[in-house]
Amino acid sequence: RRSSDLNKMIHPELEDKIRTALSEPFIFPDDIMDKLKENKIVWKNYQNFSDAYKRIRIAYIEAARKRPEEFEKRLNNFISKTKENKIIKGFGGIEKYY
To bridge 45 with a disulfide, which of 12, 72, 83, 85 should be the other Cys (CB 3.0-4.6 Å)? Predict the structure, then answer.
């Protein structure tokens, strides 16, 4: 068994696959980025967020793509909070990764 930061939470057989997935660049969907750019305040605040926060929040929105109502709800909530320059806390302590 290899010693790593991941081995306490991830089964050893999955560790290499997860490391590979995490090392791949995240592609920010154009339609989501375009919605953020529609409002100058939203776009300015968004640009000041950490890269990790941006990736986590946009991936969360993107994960609902096949559920249009949920997708819109998540996107609109993110836009609203970003306009207020507020960080979304999330669940399970995810904010420690922001």
Answer: 85
Average model confidence (pLDDT) across the chain: 87
User: Domain extents for the chain?
Assistant: 26-97
- pLDDT per position as a tens digit, 60-85: 999 999 999 999 999 999 999 999 99
CA distance 95 to 87: 9
Residue 6 is predicted with a pLDDT of 46
Q: Classify the C-alpha dihedral 62-67-70-75 as positive or negative.
A: positive
Long-range contacts of 39-42 (CB under 8 A, 24+ apart): 39/79, 39/83, 41/83, 42/79, 42/82, 42/83
